[in-house]
């Protein structure tokens, strides 16, 4: 009986990367390898062709679509709080909010597909930039039927349209919801609020009445250690403190 050849995760990842580069490199696809994972960026007009090949070709065999999600890159790589004197996380974050973020339509929104090959024991992330206004990419329901609700979720939360989807409508928010809550420019307090009106005997929508506020506390200490130009203390001060 012949021995079964065992391969490590790194070897499978390397073999997959080489196969993807050879098969899809001339189609404008790029391969990114990071954190022991592979991401393939696919041109929007090549998505359906590439998806079918990833599913049907034996060397890939990505028969399972595990998830579809949206991404808003409008604030990608930028700190939420801009400061030179505080850390980037926790209570020490700065208080001057960066609001002038310039982005182009072509690179703001992307649809991301997470694929699994059971027989090959490999995973792949496929990324497609929407590149239009409104953002739109082809639906992959005909290739992976599990994309149905996933694409509806990405549409609901990010406003990404999936061309060819048979029933593209909201799935998580209410019918009267305004906007798409996972977009970076969507306010944390929302756009509208709802309440029950006893006179009209129904639920009504109104403009949100919550005042915007900074959610990260800012603590100002009156201490010379935090004032520029002040020394940390003299030797006499430290000796007195030790006594």
Keywords:
11 strands; two-stranded antiparallel sheet; five-stranded mixed β-sheet; 21% helix; Beta Polymerase, domain 2; alpha+beta; 243 residues; globular
SSE inventory with pairings:
Layout: H1 9-24, E1 30-34, E2 37-41, H2 47-56, E3 64-72, E4 81-82, E5 96-97, H3 105-108, E6 109-117, E7 122-129, E8 136-138, H4 147-158, E9 161-163, E10 192-197, E11 202-207, H5 235-242
Parallel strand pairs: 2-7, 8-9
Antiparallel strand pairs: 1-2, 3-6, 4-5, 6-7, 10-11
Can you tell me about this structure?
This protein has 243 residues and is α+β, with helices and mostly antiparallel strands. 17% of the residues are buried. The chain has helices spanning 9-24, 47-56, 105-108, 147-158, 235-242, and strands at residues 30-34, 37-41, 64-72, 81-82, 96-97, 109-117, 122-129, 136-138, 161-163, 192-197, 202-207. The protein has a five-stranded mixed β-sheet with strand order 1-2-7-6-3. It has a two-stranded antiparallel ribbon with strand order 4-5. Strands 8-9 form a two-stranded parallel ribbon. The chain starts with 8 loop residues before the first helix and ends with a helix. The chain has a domain at 1-75 and 100-172: Beta Polymerase, domain 2.
